Amino acid sequence: MNQVFDFQRYSLLVRKHWGDNRNKYLLSLGAIASLLLLWYGFLILVDGHGAMAQDAQAITYYVGLFLTGSFYASTLFADLANKPKGINFLAVPASQLEKTLVMFLYCVIIFFVCYTCIFYAVDFIMVKVGNAVEAERWRERHIVGSVFTPHEIANVFYKADKHNSGNPFATLTIVLLLFFAVQGAYALGSIYFPAYSFIKVTITILLLILFFIFLVAKVLYPILPKGGFSNQLTEFNLYIPGKDWASNYIQLPTWTDNVLFGFFKYVIAPVFWIATYFRLKEKEV
User: Fold this and answer.
1) Which domain holds residue 272?
2) How many domains does the chain have?
3) Which tens digits make up the pLDDT trace of 138-156?
């Protein structure tokens, strides 16, 4: 039997993880549905006109996805904070790669599918409720010549606009890749910070963002000539008095922009999960 990865052993581990956490996961899914219902109910009460607009639905979907997803990822290795549970987790007869892949399966794939199903189940109900409430309000303040237009269920995976007309899924693909990376960051943080992992990882990410802003504002911009970045980070417009901005820019080769964004889109997330595997492999309780 392969000591690194065996599919039969992996499938048994997947079933064991579900058996150990079934009640917790089902309650969590119910809590997510309840939070979505409360949020939509609040929006309908406060803003009956635009509460169920498609943009509002998409924002609710992605904000909820990142908040609940990151919180769940921060609890993946919470057992390591408790010595008896940590010993039991590490003593399970499976390789660390299989344990990491099980966590990846539940944290990224299964969570994403379950959250999306719950969101659309709640969204379908609340769009009907929102339209009924808005129709009643429209009848109360009926304006001659106006027509009531009910809201439709949003397709959160599709957005056509002038910036990505060739690929309407481009922006949302980036968001989903970012979700993949965020889940990896919080999963890794749940090993480094077994106690209060969500808070500690969130603070760490905010500090890194602030450091990047400081680096750009106080270090990069002062050494650059007067001007500003254009559509891409590899294109810089120089400011020359009396001349058109469009005719005075410096641009690096196109491949540098592809490599830069390719790194952030396709490399960072796997790095987090690979680091999670090696950190788990070295973990002692």
Assistant:
1) 7-226+255-282
2) 1
3) 777 766 667 777 888 888 8
Distance CA 110, CA 146 (A): 45
**What string of DSSP letters covers 28-50?**
HHHHHHHHHHHHHHHHHHH-TTT
Return d(Cα 16, Cα 94) in angstroms, integer: 11
pLDDT number for residue 167: 62
Is residue 125 a part of any domain in this protein? yes
Q: What is the pLDDT of residues 248-269, one digit of tens each?
A: 667 766 777 677 777 777 888 8
Short-list 81, 51, 98, CA closest to 191: 81
Domain annotation covers residue 235: no
- Does residue 110 or residue 141 have the better pLDDT? 110
Q: How far apart are CA 240 and CA 95, in angstroms?
A: 62
Whether residue 13 lies inside any domain: the answer is yes
**Which residues neighbour 10 within 8 Å (Cβ) at sequence distance 6 or greater?**
94, 98, 101, 102
Residue 77, domain member (yes or no): yes
Mean of pLDDT values over 123-136? 88
Q: Is 250 in a helix, a strand, or coil? A: strand
Non-local (6+) Cβ contacts of 102 within 8 A are: 10, 13, 14, 17
Given a cut of 70, whether residue 51 has pLDDT beyond it is yes
Indicate the DSSP class of residue 251.
E
Three-state DSSP string of 57-99: HHHHHHHHHHHHHHHHHCCCCHHHHCHHHHHHHHHCCCCHHHH
Beta bridge partners of 250: 236
What sign does the dihedral 204-230-172-103 (CA atoms) show? negative
